[in-house]
Amino acid sequence: xxxxxxxxxxxxxxxxxxxxxxxxxxxxxxxxxxxxxxxxxxxxxxxxxxxxxxxxxxxxxxxxxxxxxxxxxxxxxxxxxxxxxxxxxxxxxxxxxxxxxxxxxxxxxxxxxxxxxxxxxxxxxxxxxxxxxxxxxxx
Length: 139
Hints:
This protein is mainly alpha-helical. 73% of the residues lie in helices and 0% in strands.
């Protein structure tokens, strides 16, 4: 007699998260039960709130400034604020930020080994920070 192999069921992280709010979610999903309109509306509202919370949460990544000044220095915070309030609100700014995130870890690594690169970075970033802080004073 041949034994039938049990089919493996893969559960995504999103499904696990949803199951935390509705213990029967996975069971109902496996049975093909569709969510009610009210449940879909509630989920959409929750997803929107979650997205808003994620946008409000500060992104602590700022590799070069953190390397030069420290992770919680006021200059690093000024650069993060500029990124969040100005750059991330426009497509070209988002592209610039993505390029920065790809290149800056390598640049920090090189900068920590070669003092001339570190000095050059410091000069450039100090100039940017000076302008940002001047603009903040003027506002």
